[in-house]
Protein: S-(hydroxymethyl)glutathione dehydrogenase
Organism: Futiania mangrovi
Amino acid sequence: MKTRAAVAFEAGKPLEIVELDLEGPKAGEVLVEVKATGICHTDAFTLSGEDPEGLFPAVLGHEGAGIVLEVGEGVTSVKPGDHVIPLYTPECRECEYCLHPKTNLCQKIRTTQGKGLMPDGTSRFSYKGQPIFHYMGTSTFANHTVLPEIALAKIDTNAPFDKVCYVGCGVTTGVGAVINTAKVEPGSNCVVFGLGGIGLNVIQGLRMVGANMIVGVDLNDDKEDWGRRFGMTHFVNPKKVEGDLVAHLVELTGGGADYSFECIGNVNVMRQALECAHKGWGESIIIGVAGAGQEISTRPFQLVTGRSWRGSAFGGARGRTDVPKIVDWYMNGKIEIDPMITHVLPLDRINEAFDLMHEGKSIRSVVVY
Ligand code: NAD
Ligand code: AHE
Ligand code: ZN
Ligand code: ZN
């Protein structure tokens, strides 16, 4: 079949809207009509050429929601008409990782996914006879996409696509990092670095679990109102701090953060996030994704004296199990999504969504098909 897609033909260049050829689902695969997709900073990161796994030409996009159109042989967990969210972290429920209680990083298809291919080692997308790579196993910047069955969460059919697509990455990543990765206790003092599409969801996760102080740190003063809107109690703009930012945060939190979260992808900020964690027990969670060649550093003494450095992918969520529950939380009013979706655009204006993100003018832009 044919489908319209925004294709990343080259790193650093705008996406191009073209009509692609899409092969139907093979055994264990599912054809999905994507109804809406968010644009996450990770899409911009890969498009920039900084992602060591970045491949071109590719159909990017990993924050979608849509409807199952057709299933391949042997597919049993979804059927045509089901509403689904594509999962860049699948959940096969049988690999060594799925069976381990301490991780959500299903590895069943990770190797081919990282090569921009379906599990059989081929692509379903092509343009003028040449294959186009998949991205993160999801490729939601196409109106239709093919995914393995294990990479689909079945959700409430009443949930609006243009809102719950955000659960496909940002909401789950932020809220999940609080609940699943850090397991933040009520009354904790927390610091969140970067109040974008991820950081604000960390903040609403912290509000939900009953954190005490929720300190937001961002270079952009416009983010103060955004943070407070979702439960932030204190705002710090590093540009306005006299002296050392870490010392300021340690003093503000009365000795350091019980939990800190880096939601930017800046290795220098990752160090600040670790070092503002409380001596003896503070934990710092890295969420931000840093480019090829970037490394983190600190004095080992920071860890010797009881701080822990951790990371979180997709909020530690097991997608097929947890994503439908998070959609239900949204439907029941337990978490907010609507105000964070600041811009809604048609596919042919998708490049504007990247501009808005880089200019700090959007929280989340969503493309509706
Ligand atoms: P975003 O662009 O919406 O937000 C980034 C925020 O950081 C902005 O508000 C910006 O003003 C602020 N910022 C930039 N530099 C700063 C600095 N030095 N100090 C303080 N604030 C600063 O991005 P996003 O969509 O929220 O994504 C954030 C990061 O999380 C990206 O690196 C993205 O790739 C990553 N991410 C990781 C996962 C995961 O599973 N680990 C999932 C989604 C996104
Ligand atoms: N390809 C990059 C790593 C990118 C990365 O860390 N991705 C996160 C999700 S970001 C979503 O917005 C993730 O899930 N990581 C686990 C995994 O297996 O990729 C690189 O540096 O190579
Ligand atoms: Zn993302
Ligand atoms: Zn698995």
Notes: The two ends are 17 Å apart (CA to CA). The chain has a mean pLDDT of 98. DSSP finds eleven helices and 17 strands in the chain.
